From TrEMBL:
Lineage of source species: Bacteria, Bacillati, Actinomycetota, Actinomycetes, Kitasatosporales
GO MF annotations, alphabetized: DNA binding; transposase activity
Protein name, as recorded: IS200/IS605 family transposase
Annotated organism of origin: Streptomyces daliensis
Domain Transposase IS200-like: 18-138
GO biological process, one term: DNA transposition
Length: 142
């Protein structure tokens, strides 16, 4: 008897799509101002996890330093990554600024919490060359 096939929990299924989309995001504070301590990073993760939930996305990993955060997000194809990023940055900026009044020097942030730019990288389990080779070796119809 052959072993039973177990579905991969990382693969999501929708009505007309099967997908596994991950993005590595990095947000930097305005002018790389030193803002985060452990307590603020924990709160930032909570806020960003809620935003991801609202987008039916999963915040798989989160970490950061004094002036930046890294996120690994598993998101559905119906979500435009730029919209998710705008919400993550906008909601976290508002909430963190409201909740940390007096703890963060406003001069460090110059009126904004996050830098206007960000890093977004697509992630997958197979290295890029493996995917390229796979596509290159597909048989074309005769």
């Amino acid at each position: 008897m052959s072993p039973r096939w177990e579905p991969d929990p990382g693969v999501r299924r929708g009505r007309h799509v099967v997908h596994r989309l991950h993005a590595h995001l990095v947000f930097v504070t305005r002018h790389r101002g030193t803002v985060f301590n452990d307590e603020m990073l924990t709160r930032c993760e909570e806020i960003m996890r809620k935003v991801c939930d609202d987008f039916e996305a999963d915040l798989t990993e989160f970490n950061g330093g004094e002036d930046h955060v890294h996120l690994l997000v598993h998101y559905p194809p119906k979500v435009a990554l730029s919209n998710l990023v705008n919400s993550l940055k906008g909601v976290s900026s508002r909430r963190l600024r409201q909740e940390s009044t007096g703890r963060v020097d406003p001069a460090v942030l110059h009126g904004r919490f996050w830098s206007g730019s960000y890093f977004a990288g697509s992630c997958g389990e197979a290295p890029l060359q493996v995917v390229k080779d796979y596509i290159e070796n597909q048989k074309r119809p005769d």
